Amino acid sequence: MSAxxxxxxxxxxxxxxxxxxxxDTALPxxxxxxxxxxxxxPLVSVLLMVPGGSIHDPADRLGTADLTARLLPEGTTAHDxxxxxxxxxxxxxxxxxxxxxAFTTLSASFLAEDWIAGLDLVAEVxxxxxxxxxDLRAEKARALQELAVDLDDAQSVASRVTYQELFGExxxxxxxxxxxxxxxxxxxxDLRAFHAAQYRPRGAVLxxxxxxxVAQVQAAAxxxxxxxxxxxxxxxxxxxxxxxxxxxxxxxxxxxxSQVQVRIAHRAVPRAHPEHEALRLGxxxxxxxxxxxxxDLLRVQHALTYGAxxxxxxxxxxxxxSADFSTGNESAREALELAWGAIQGWRAGGWGDEEFDRxxxxxxxxxxxxxxxxxxxxxxxxxxDYQGLPADHMARRVSTIEALERPGVEAAVARAFTGxxxxxxxxxxxxxxxPQLEGFLGGTWEVVAAR
Amino acid sequence: MSFFRFRSWVVALALMASPPVARALTLEVERHTLxxxxxxxxxxxxxxxxxxxxxLYQCGSRDEVVGAxxxxxxxxHLMFDGSERFPAGSFDRxxxxxxxxxxxYTWTDVTAYMETFPPAALPLALDLEADRIxxxxxxxxxxxxxxxxxxxxxxxxxxxDDREAAWEALFSLVFQAYPYRDPVIGWMEDIQALTQAQVQxxxxxxxxxxxALVVLTGDVAPAEALPAxxxxxxxxxxxAAVQHPRWNEPPQAGERRAxxxxxxxQPSFVVGYLGPAAADPDQPALELLDHVLSxxxxxxxxxxxxxxxEVLAEVSTTLLPMQAASLLLVEGTPADGVDPHTALAAVExxxxxxxAVPLPAAALARARRAAERSLVEELxxxxxxADLLGTWELQAGGWERLTERPARWAEVSPEAxxxxxxxxxxxxxxxxxxxxxxxxx
Lengths: 451, 441
Prior knowledge:
The complex is a heterodimer. Chain A folds into two domains: 16-224, Cytochrome Bc1 Complex, Chain A, domain 1; 247-448, CATH 3.30.830.10. Chain A is 42% helix and 18% strand. Chain A contains 16 helices and twelve strands. Chain A has helices at 64-71, 81-90, 115-127, 133-150, 154-167, 180-185, 188-198, 214-224, 276-287, 293-301, 332-347, 353-370, 374-387, 393-402, 406-416, 430-437; strands spanning 23-26, 32-37, 43-50, 96-99, 104-111, 205-210, 247-253, 259-268, 308-314, 319-328, 422-428, 446-448. Chain A has a six-stranded mixed β-sheet with strand order 1-2-6-3-5-4, with helices on both faces. A six-stranded mixed β-sheet of chain A has the order 9-10-8-11-7-12, with helices on both faces. In chain A, helix 1 crosses helix 7, helix 9 crosses helix 12 and helix 10 runs antiparallel to helix 11 (332-347). By secondary structure, chain B is of the alpha+beta class. Chain B folds into two domains: 3-234, CATH 3.30.830.10; 256-440, CATH 3.30.830.10. Chain B has helices spanning 9-17, 71-78, 90-97, 122-134, 140-159, 162-174, 188-193, 196-206, 222-234, 283-294, 300-308, 340-356, 361-378, 382-395, 400-411, 414-424, and strands spanning 3-4, 30-33, 39-44, 51-57, 101-106, 111-117, 212-218, 256-262, 268-275, 312-321, 326-334, 431-437. In chain B, the strands form two sheets. Chain B has a seven-stranded mixed β-sheet, with helices on both faces. A five-stranded mixed β-sheet of chain B has the order 8-12-9-11-10, with helices on both faces. The chains are: A alpha+beta, B alpha+beta. Chains A and B meet through helix 2, strand 5, helix 4, helix 10 and strand 10 of A and helix 3, helix 5 and helix 13 of B.
């Protein structure tokens, strides 16, 4: 019987350290190593984040970061794809590799007795992938099929168009999975160049959370990443486009849908900004829990939707507030007017103390829920690094939220979300929906397609 | 299909479908019984300061009748809409003000409710649960409101979702007689026709404490929690247990096929095989078979059909254990330009090999390892842990079966794996739903 499996799950409540506070170290190569010791289960989550996302794609080769990530598990200079998968599966796990807008993550969870062997494999995949033309051909075909499915899915289309319209030609507006035309242009040489430029230790961060010791992690990381050198290339991002005046409204045609997908979005200050936490609390009041304004209005009072919510996603220098819901085709206009009115009322302030206190309590209650698992904490540590947040951000977040007061949060919301710069996206069957949307907020709807 | 009140139901399937497992695993779980006979499972977990209260009722969509499908799920929504002491809207308002959140789901065999909250809010959560068990306030207004919400839910999660539409069709193919054939969310026509009298009768049938199981996990002290549970729930009249429909599914005489013509960019398929009940001795081997078939890059179907022959763009399998039966599903998307019938034939060729020749011991060892790690991960979360314990208690013959699972897996040999495939994955027992682009019609 393996040692890891003979544990008594009745663990001690006395953890070795703060389960939300990482210990940061660095390798001589510049790779930052963040560790949280949590021995309460014999489980270890490992996540390596490298600064290689769609914002780093060559402008005429959108999807390069995504294809590179997809090809990483297809073999290394030491193992072919099957041998690599077998080595991981011998450890009872699989490696998830995912490219987003700003970074790519390689992550896996291991039983405690396996994690050092697992880290060696993560390092091997990150530093010496094969990236062959043959593998690219097969993976490109699968990527194109998935893209076709995404472009047929209303929620996926709504998200793509939201970023595309908010950021235009700026790299923040790019589709992470590229376009059919751009994918066709990407070659294996492009992938190797991308890997050489972005998969570098200086700029990357390794997060390890679980039944480990800091010194152990440091030693294992030094051994696993020995010989990995260099600085990740800076994407040299251009300035963000100026927000527009008033409201921009766009329609996307997706025939045959029985519902419309709606996004009402606005840009905001990023995660590291002193007012961002207040905006998150404000967003929770608008569309966080089941009793938030949008959910109460659209679902409980009017029964127009199954769910409505708002959330903030942050790049390192800009965030996006997005209020999302779907509704039946026949109720699109009514739901849109109600949601728009709720958002305008929300940003005008005058909130009740009871609803503010409830939103704050809900937000505080969600902190341990969303950081409960080792994988969630490893992910959060990595994102914190990208967003420029201090190492004690997670540990201090509760006291930060507790210190927020209603007038300050209302003022922050009013400053961040003025009457300008709003985007309304409706995805649905245009023949059915367009007539009822005419005249909404004046002006005309622009019909666009997802890239 | 399990339908959550708010979250994506796919989450529920992932939990129930993933092989819940471990080898000599010791869990500190206390079993108690309240004065009125309600069983209680209690698992202290002190790593994070949160607690989950889950109450599962042994009443699900299989206990519905023709013409009233979806009533369990609609009632699940209504359970949040007011009771005698807590008027409409107050359930979540009070819970969220205390830092908590709530959810519920309906499945074929159970309807479940869970609240997750800071430990100090346990008395509030119990008070809310006890009042709605005792005296739900059903009104015509909230019934109409939730009917509309559920209709939107059905549009969003089934009618505009190609995969879920295929699953709905598959259940209707596999089950010709047993009530598992009808969707958990109900047919739209039934949702529109349910009356208040039907819903009230359903409430009285299902929410008797005799149908309930309470699971409490997280940062709790049993010495304090048990008196609180007894005070809140122990005095409620037990009532009568629901009598579930007897198994009446006739043997399948041959392959069944259905085609859905939808606005999809490419064809896909799902193949379903009827399997044994969740508590059946074949389940451990079927759980490993699920891993062996599609658990990773080197798994049998993925390696053969996605990478070597390149006839599929993707393939996955899912084992869905239920109280009276289980389903093993194979879902796939043909590679670009590959005819879906050719792709289906390729799947059957691989399965024929699995039925005929024992797989290498190394493949089995990997499956065991993956299952063990999955179990540890599933036991990590407070809310997930509550659902896992409750589900195993009700459908696998007791939560203790979890601790024995690693030993059961260790007993499965390559020949036993082959035999279980030969028993349950027969070509004449295939149920196939093809989803094809409607412009190809």
